[in-house]
From TrEMBL:
<protein>
    <submittedName>
        <fullName>NAD-dependent epimerase/dehydratase family protein</fullName>
    </submittedName>
</protein>
<dbReference type="InterPro" id="IPR036291">
    <property type="entry name" value="NAD(P)-bd_dom_sf"/>
</dbReference>
<keyword id="KW-0520">NAD</keyword>
<dbReference type="InterPro" id="IPR001509">
    <property type="entry name" value="Epimerase_deHydtase"/>
</dbReference>
<dbReference type="Pfam" id="PF01370">
    <property type="entry name" value="Epimerase"/>
</dbReference>
<feature type="domain" description="NAD-dependent epimerase/dehydratase">
    <location>
        <begin position="4"/>
        <end position="249"/>
    </location>
</feature>
Length: 340
């Protein structure tokens, strides 16, 4: 039985990945600073260690000898309301960088055979993503570096950490740049949720004939990948001989208004989209409307050429599946709606 460690397995993607690995017959150890909110431990792992990976002693404990692979997804992160306001920059950079420095060093010390690191499309240069209709997120476009957030800078730094450990110490790494992964059993409220979950939650909570807010003019473009396909791509990368970095995402680009309308259509309600920005946003929320780059879309040509993998499901499929789950969460009266 292959022995696997999933760091960040208490999070959204990490939980889904750990569950798949366990289903595939691997022995799975998870470490995270929090329990998974929606999966029981027995469903996703054989052993769950609650610990802070910014502490090198925790990492030393978790990465035991005899484990073959590490999947490193642990990070301090969230949606636009968490990443782009600037209020969490120090924590995002300090905590995530410490985790990756600790993990790289300990993986070498314990002789880990292969390590996966989840980077992000947020590391691509801001100037390549000004045109909402023609963003450039080809892997080779990463330099000269100019990410639009401190989160992106940290991801780029940590990519370089793992590649340096690969060159100097022979650490066998695989690096992927995730593009907006979404799906059930993840954060869907509270400010750290991603755009698909936020739109679907608003559609579920908003009464028929009502309206909900979309930050900005709604013409920003993005692509979104369903979590099951993300897990499939990660496992394909780990089985390959390709180090990366490589994009893992969908090439089905939509505007944020189109994403919101898709959520409304799936809900079957008649809801009006209200775009909010500028002074109106400052008056209501007290800080500048966080929008991120103007346009971003995954470029999957490198992944396809190296591994032959392609996305198989359209956005509406995953959005429909996710809405079913979020609608159940909304109908659960154990939480309080504090605003849309």
């Amino acid at each position: 039985m292959k022995k696997i460690i999933v760091l960040g397995g208490g999070g959204f993607i990490g939980g889904h990945l750990a569950r798949k690995l366990k289903q595939d017959g691997c022995f799975v150890r998870i470490c995270d600073i929090k329990n998974h909110e929606y999966f029981e431990h027995e469903d996703i792992c054989h052993e769950f260690i609650l610990g802070d990976l910014t502490d090198p002693k925790t990492v030393e404990l978790v990465i035991g000898k005899g484990y073959e692979e590490i999947y490193q997804l642990a990070a301090d992160m969230g949606g636009a309301g968490y990443i782009f306001t600037g209020q969490n920059d120090a924590n995002v950079m300090h905590n995530s960088a410490l985790i990756n420095l600790n993990v790289a060093k300990e993986a070498v010390a314990k002789g880990i055979k292969k390590l996966f690191y989840s980077s992000s499309a947020c590391m691509y240069p801001e100037n390549n993503q000004i045109d909402s209709n023609n963003p450039n997120c080809e892997e080779s476009s990463a330099y000269p570096a100019n990410p639009d957030s401190e989160y992106g800078w940290e991801k780029l730094f940590s990519e370089r950490v793992y590649l340096a450990f690969n060159r100097n110490f022979g650490l066998n790494v695989r690096i992927a740049r995730f593009h907006n992964i979404y799906g059930p059993s993840g954060t869907w409220k509270g400010g750290k949720e991603k755009a698909p979950a936020a739109m679907l939650r608003k559609a579920a909570e908003t009464p028929d004939g009502g309206e909900f807010e979309v930050w900005g003019d709604g013409q920003q473009t993005r692509s979104f990948l369903y979590v099951d396909e993300c897990v499939e791509a990660v496992l394909s990368l780990m089985k390959s001989d390709f180090t990366g970095p490589v994009n893992i995402g969908s090439e089905e680009m939509v505007t944020i208004n189109q994403l919101a309308q898709m959520a409304i259509d799936i809900s079957g309600k008649n809801i009006i989209i209200k775009n909010i920005y500028g002074k109106e946003f400052l008056t209501k929320y007290g800080f500048k409307c966080p929008l991120g780059v103007r346009g971003r879309n995954s470029d999957n040509r490198l992944f396809k050429s190296k591994l032959g993998w392609e996305v198989s499901k359209p956005l509406v499929y995953g959005m429909s599946k996710t809405f079913e789950w979020i609608e159940q969460m909304v109908s659960d009266k154990s939480y309080e709606v504090v605003g849309l």
